[in-house]
Amino acid sequence: MKRGVAMYTVHNNARKDLYKTMQMVREEGYEEIEFFGPMTTWTPAEIRHALEDSGLTFTGWHTEWADLQEKHFDETVEYLKKAGCPIAVIPCLGGQWNIGHTAEEECRETWLRHFETFETIHAKLKADGLETGYHNHSHEFELSYDGKSLFEFIFDKLPRDVIIEFDSGNCIEGGGDPMCVLEKYRDRDMILHLKPWSRTNGFDTWIGAPDDANDWARILDPRVKTYRHLLVESENAVLDEMVNLKRCMEGINRFIQ
């Protein structure tokens, strides 16, 4: 299975020098990359040039909810297509960031309205040749509606061809069990965000560290679940980004032969 990286893991370096950062990512053994950040940061030509010279495959872009609304939709899609992006992954709705709605508006009916908008966005992206995904944070496991976690409520309502981008560390942080998610959605198309998370140090750890709460041997067992992409998304604020990237790759290689 190819190893990839979510750009948030190296976002400070990428903002300074995209081309050099992607070369360094490839040198660490990563083969794929998912973009993150404002679309004004780089031109599509700069992205294509960096991808081609590094040999990295473009897996998708964390595309903000606001950028997919009617006012900005055409401009966003034009940019993504020029850059060569295949999947627009919505990185978040709700939560502490108040994306799409505020904490005061958090309720079942708010999410049902979001689903209507989501399905419209999904259909329009499909018509333009792009796929759609959704990425979880911790609140999808802290909240529940209709006797289900918000994560289940979302993915049981959305069309089956919306890709689940499952963030394992965010799941654990929110009190969820990654293995329950993988079992329930065994037959769904899924991108795995390998998110190291520690019960003592939060996100300041790395894949396979002694305090990393993820059971990577089971999560990465192909008999449990196969994934479209494996993408390291580490929020470690203690280690240098490239040191962290190297440690995460060393960790992955202990669990994948």
Helix-strand blueprint:
Elements: E1 3-6, H1 11-16, H2 18-27, E2 32-35, H3 44-54, E3 57-62, H4 70-83, E4 87-90, H5 108-127, E5 131-135, H6 139-142, E6 144-145, E7 148-149, H7 150-157, E8 163-167, H8 168-173, H9 178-184, E9 190-194, H10 216-219, E10 229-232, H11 241-255
Parallel strand pairs: 1-2, 1-10, 2-3, 3-4, 4-5, 5-8, 8-9, 9-10
Antiparallel strand pairs: 6-7
Helix pairs in contact: 2-3, 3-4
Tell me the CATH superfamily.
Divalent-metal-dependent TIM barrel enzymes
Structural class comes to alpha/beta
Helix content: 40-55%
Please report the first level of CATH classification, the CATH class. Answer: Alpha Beta
- Can you write the helix and strand succession as a string? EHHEHEHEHEHEEHEHHEHEH
Sheet having the most strands: 8 strands, parallel, barrel
Low-pLDDT stretches are none
At a glance:
The chain is an alpha/beta fold and 257 residues long.
Report on this model:
The chain is of the alpha/beta class. It has a single domain (3-255), classed as Divalent-metal-dependent TIM barrel enzymes (TIM Barrel). 41% of the residues lie in helices and 16% in strands. It is built from 11 helices and 10 strands. The chain has helices at 11-16, 18-27, 44-54, 70-83, 108-127, 139-142, 150-157, 168-173, 178-184, 216-219, 241-255; strands at residues 3-6, 32-35, 57-62, 87-90, 131-135, 144-145, 148-149, 163-167, 190-194, 229-232. The strands form 2 sheets. Strands 1-2-3-4-5-8-9-10 form an 8-stranded parallel beta barrel. A two-stranded antiparallel sheet has the order 6-7. Helix 2 (18-27) runs parallel beside helix 3 (44-54) and helix 3 packs parallel to helix 4 (70-83). It is globular and about 45 Å long.
